[in-house]
Automatic annotation (TrEMBL):
It comes from Pichia kluyveri (Yeast). GO terms for molecular function: ATP binding; ubiquitin conjugating enzyme activity. This is E2 ubiquitin-conjugating enzyme. Pfam families: UQ_con. It is an enzyme of class 2 (transferase). The active site is at C87. Transmembrane segments: none annotated. Keywords: ATP-binding, Nucleotide-binding, Transferase, Ubl conjugation pathway. It comes from the Eukaryota. InterPro entries: UBC, UBQ-conjugating_AS, UBQ-conjugating_enzyme/RWD. The keyword Transferase applies. Its EC number is 2.3.2.23. PROSITE patterns: UBC_1 (PS00183), UBC_2 (PS50127). Residues 3-149 form the UBC core domain.
Amino acid sequence: MSSLPKRIIRETERLISDPVPGITATPHEENLRYFDVLLDGPSGSPYENGVFKLELFLPDDYPMAPPMVRFLTKIYHPNIDRLGRICLDVLKNNWSPALQIRTILLSIQALLSSPNPDDPLANEVADEWKNNHDKAIQTAREWTAQYAK
């Protein structure tokens, strides 16, 4: 771990010693900038009882640049496309070096509770979210049961 910047070492140690409830982030032994993430679907959301796999990578210029994060588990969500890419302001134009891995993962978990179909990455899902909300919620629950168990 000594070749990593102190900030990444501190954040990684904190993720392991003081984990965020419902979120596990484990660095790869061969590349400590690459994390396997397990994120519990928030209660009260259509993703409840699901466990979603994500990958998180810290680029060389982290923390000046945001981490790269994507869902590996298939999910029906207006702000997450079929490749698992996430439309979230703090991963793009609202990134700040003051943010940390844990705050990003909490923001992603919060996005599952509060989808934003007005800023979609998956347009068809967003359209259904706006025009047939009950069916979109049902589909999200079905996908969670099928892919995130």
